[in-house]
Design goal:
This protein is mainly alpha-helical. It has helices at about 1-30, 40-55, 60-85, 95-110, 110-125, 135-155, 160-170, 180-190, 210-225, 230-255. The protein has ten helices and no strands.
């Protein structure tokens, strides 16, 4: 019995080493044709996840995903997605754990363009979420992109095209909890009111249509969730609209 157990461990070690060598060739060439079988890939993926878990700092985890894991696994996922695309008539669901992990890692390292491309494909293909993440893809995508957009907006940076892309899905396709949809409406409304430094400043906006559009979005947020907390900013929008109307009225009353 001990010999059998020892033999199994040696075999597993050899398989892991074989997978590691083949995947190194994939990383160096960017060509998935050198990839080992899915069985060996999953053995190596498990080893990679254990190594990743050993990092204590989040920054180190992200750096490892960006510099080591994605170059190693991305070509394999790309090949898998290309194969599925070529068989577009086949809509059968298949669980490809590597695809799921790579998608999450792309979000983690900030490659949102590629991450959204993969995540939308994951939804279309019915791909389960990676590992122990107890989320479905729409909720995970919405929260991740929302957190990113908040940080960008606070620093006066653009939130597009990623926020708009996800916003359209949140309000048009995905059935997320009302408070999640409400916060997207609220954030979209506030985005129309932001100054270049990231501050919410209705009093600095002279575009009436823009102010009204922002108010409509904020109103929708309030309709969806009673604790949306948009009353104060909506009052400021109303004040600004009245001020603009008064200025226009004074201009019209001036003699020629």
């Amino acid at each position: 019995m001990k010999k059998a157990v020892g033999g199994a461990k040696i075999l597993a070690w050899r398989e892991s080493r074989n997978a590691e060598k083949q995947l190194e060739q994939v990383r160096l060439t960017g060509n998935a044709q050198y990839a080992p079988s899915l069985h060996l890939q999953l053995i190596e993926l498990d080893a990679d996840l254990k190594r990743l878990k050993a990092f204590e700092r989040r920054a180190d985890k992200i750096a490892h995903k960006r510099d080591v894991l994605l170059p190693k696994w991305l070509p394999i996922v790309e090949a898998y997605l290309n194969e599925r695309k070529e068989k577009g008539h086949e809509k059968t669901v298949s669980d490809h754990p590597i695809f799921a992990y790579v998608t999450v890692w792309l979000f983690d390292v900030g490659n949102l363009g590629r991450a959204l491309e993969f995540a939308f494909a994951a939804i279309e293909l019915g791909q389960p979420m990676a590992g122990s993440i107890r989320r479905k893809w729409p909720g995970f995508i919405a929260d991740t992109v929302f957190d990113w957009a908040e940080l960008q907006a606070e620093h006066g940076h653009s939130i597009e095209p990623y926020f708009g892309t996800v916003f359209n899905r949140v309000v048009g396709e995905w059935k997320l909890p009302e408070q999640v949809t409400a916060k997207f409406y609220k954030f979209a409304g506030l985005a129309l009111l932001r100054a270049k430094n990231g501050d919410i400043a209705p009093s600095h906006i002279g575009d009436v249509d823009r102010l009204k559009r922002a108010d409509q979005l904020l109103e929708k947020a309030a309709d969806l969730h009673k604790h949306a907390q948009v009353k104060t900013v909506r009052n400021k929008i109303a004040m600004r609209l009245r001020a603009i109307e008064e200025l226009n009225r004074q201009g019209d009353s001036q003699p020629d």
